[in-house]
Design goal:
The complex is a heterodimer.
Chain A lengths: L1 H31 L6 H21 L5 H28 L7 H23 L4 E2 L7 E6 L2 E6 H23 L1 H11 L1 H6 L4 H27 L1 E2 L3 H16 L4 H21 L5 H15 L14
Antiparallel strand pairs in A: 1-4, 2-3
Helix pairs in contact in A: 1-5, 1-8, 1-9, 1-10, 2-3, 2-4, 2-8, 2-9, 3-8, 5-6, 5-8, 6-8, 9-10, 9-11, 10-11
Chain B lengths: L4 E12 L2 E12 L3 E5 L6 H8 L7 E7 L4 E3 H4 L12 H13 L2 H6 L2 E3 L12 H7 L9 H6 L2 H20 L15 H13 L5 E5 L7 H18 L2 E5 L3 H7 L2 E6 L2 E6 L1 H5 L2 H8 L2 H7 L1
Parallel strand pairs in B: 3-8, 3-9, 6-7, 7-8
Antiparallel strand pairs in B: 1-2, 1-4, 4-5, 9-10
Helix pairs in contact in B: 5-8, 7-8
The chains are: A mainly alpha, B alpha/beta.
Chain lengths: 303, 293
């Protein structure tokens, strides 16, 4: 019983991070119909930026944890957002009107460029940052106990706040309205005077910011990372986006949570060696039953 | 060029590969008029609209839009290829580069031209009132930060936008449907909503592509009334494509007839009705009849 609860908690934190990264995939897909394969590497870049910012802050003698985490979040979001913007400008905008395949290849190229650029500039060795916050809350349940580290609580809190803020922006604000209009019919949106190129840039920046939030949180929790860390987590988040219905924002969040929780439960109860096999099998099964994903809308073909 | 023409199209050419869809189209639209663009199927009417609104980038010619606040060359703002002369004059170069990088069809709308489509293109997954709000993003407070932080000025701008949206919902008689999804409305309601949405962008020239298609006679009559209201009370120039000849002759001050990508006649309705070329284009020319027989 306590193992199930413990794995549920672990899965929830993991899943909320998957959800954050999945948002980047799903929003970009929704607006230009392209899978941004460089998104996992944007996450990886944000992990490095986190480490650099944490090192800089401690160099200047700042040791209070709240200041470090808030400062790191803001600076990392800003720099990673700039990366997202630049990637769109350099790799995707010139190919806007060419075939989807060209943009896809460009995305894969961008992913390799980012990995190699980080490998060359930061070294191929695994890097790490020290644990900044130790301690945990512990609940005794019967004979066993469930333990949640403070860092995991912060992950949950920050991830859900970010998702809430983003949902608010998309659903309630004018910017969100313009994003949704562009997503539904970009040509029509531009005829109504919306600068769709700018909206697409903003969507890339939003996606990268969410990946940056995930990058800061995971890096502070695990400590270790290397230039290849974006690949597997990118694939997982992509799976989460497809699971929830790609193009759907709540779908990405839900897909992330489901994937994270089921993966943790499988790892804790059955076998941790086969957890990746399990999560991708889950994807296959859901796609067989619901090809458009959990919350995706099936494409209606007009006859 | 006289000040009273809101739109001047000169020698407009549009090629799709080897197909010449439009060949040397020239016409002017007077400010405050209701004009119609008619012609048999495939004559190139919608292509003209697509060029005017920046949906297509015309192959050649000039489209000049002269609204009260601005003078715009539609083809230029879409971004043209560089000309040899640009490399001599830095100003021309910078201008061309600016439109190449930041130009696009949104600038055409911002200079005062709006359009509707033959096949309705509403944002079907948004509510009726949101469809109208999204069209007003230029007039409402534009600052993104203010929007996210929900400042007082921003809320006031939103309030104003909402009032305007409801004003137009009143004009097209859709107030009671404001919070439904646009995709749920009936066909006739969607058509009216599309016109209301175009009007929310504050246009001075509105291009309606077959606004009466699929409407029943009484709805068509309502539409005719509405177009008159647009012109008389809101100072909008109307250019429409329409197959319903009764409506066209009833409402238009000026008619341009296209056939096979060329202007075959232009003038007032009386003139057009009796023009032998127009009759030939619609009913088939006599020499073609002989071939047919």
């Amino acid at each position: 019983m306590d193992i199930v609860l413990q794995q549920l908690v672990n899965g929830l934190t993991l899943g909320s991070v998957y959800g954050l990264i999945a948002i980047g995939y799903t929003m970009v897909y929704g607006i230009i119909g392209m899978i941004n394969f460089a998104h996992g590497d944007v996450y990886m870049v944000s992990a490095y930026i986190t480490a650099i910012v944490v090192a800089l802050l401690s160099y200047f003698g700042i040791e209070s944890f709240p200041i470090i985490i808030v400062g790191t979040l803001f600076i990392t979001i800003a720099i990673t957002g700039a990366y997202g913007w630049a990637i769109e400008q350099i790799a995707y905008r010139p190919l806007r009107n060419s075939s989807r395949l060209a943009a896809l290849i460009s995305a894969i190229g961008m992913s390799l460029i980012l990995q190699n650029y980080v490998q060359i500039s930061q070294g191929a060795r695994q890097q790490g940052i020290p644990n900044l916050l130790s301690g945990a809350v512990r609940f005794d349940i019967g004979d066993g106990f469930v333990q949640i580290t403070y860092m995991k609580l912060i992950i949950l809190l920050v991830a859900f706040i970010s998702m809430g803020v983003l949902t608010y922006i998309i659903q309630k604000t004018k910017l969100g309205r313009m994003c949704r209009a562009t997503q539904q019919d970009p040509k029509m949106a531009s005829i109504l005077g919306i600068n769709t190129d700018r909206i697409i840039s903003i969507v890339f920046v939003i996606g990268a910011s969410m990946a940056a939030v995930a990058g800061v949180l995971i890096t502070m929790d695990y400590g270790a990372f290397d230039f290849y860390v974006g690949f597997i987590i990118g694939i997982k988040a992509f799976t989460a986006a497809v699971l929830g219905g790609i193009g759907s924002l709540p779908g990405a969040m839900l897909g992330g949570l489901i994937l994270g929780i089921s993966e943790s439960l499988f790892a804790g109860l059955i076998s941790s060696d086969y957890k990746d096999v399990f999560s991708f099998s889950l994807l296959v099964i859901i796609l067989i039953v619901r090809p458009s994903g959990l919350l995706g809308k099936p494409e209606v073909e007009k006859v | 060029m006289s000040k009273e023409n809101i739109l001047a199209v000169e020698n407009l050419v549009m090629h799709f590969g080897g197909i010449k869809a439009l060949n040397d189209i020239t016409f002017n639209i007077k400010k405050g008029s209701v004009s119609a663009l008619i012609g048999p199927n495939g004559a190139g009417k919608t292509t003209v609209f697509n060029c005017l609104t920046g949906f297509y980038k015309a192959t050649g010619g000039h489209i000049r839009l002269t609204t009260d606040h601005k003078d715009t060359s539609v083809i230029q703002v879409l971004g043209e290829p560089f000309q040899p002369l640009d490399f001599v004059s830095p100003m021309a170069f910078i201008k061309r580069l600016k439109y190449k990088m930041f130009g696009g069809s949104h600038l055409v709308n911002r200079s005062g031209l709006a359009r509707t489509f033959q096949n309705i293109r509403l944002f079907k997954e948004m509510s009726v009132v949101e469809n109208l709000l999204v069209a007003q993003h230029m007039t409402a407070n534009r600052s993104l930060i203010a929007g996210i932080l929900n400042t007082k000025a921003f809320r006031e701008a939103e309030e104003e936008a909402l009032q305007k949206a409801f004003y137009w919902l009143g004009v097209v008689d859709l107030v009671s449907h404001a919070n439904r999804l646009a995709g749920e409305l009936s066909y006739g309601q969607q058509r009216r909503l599309e016109i209301a949405r175009s009007m929310c962008t504050n246009p001075e020239l509105i291009c309606l592509d077959e606004p009466a298609a699929g409407l029943n006679p009484s709805e068509t009559e309502e539409l005719t009334k509405m177009i008159r209201i647009l012109r008389d009370q809101h100072n909008v120039t109307v250019l429409l494509i329409e197959h319903d000849m009764g409506m066209v002759m009833d409402i238009s001050d000026y008619i341009v007839v296209l056939d096979h990508g060329q202007v075959i006649a232009k003038g007032d309705p009386e003139n057009i009705k009796n023009n032998p070329k127009v009759i030939a284009a619609y009913l088939g020319a006599e020499d073609e009849d002989e071939v047919g027989l």
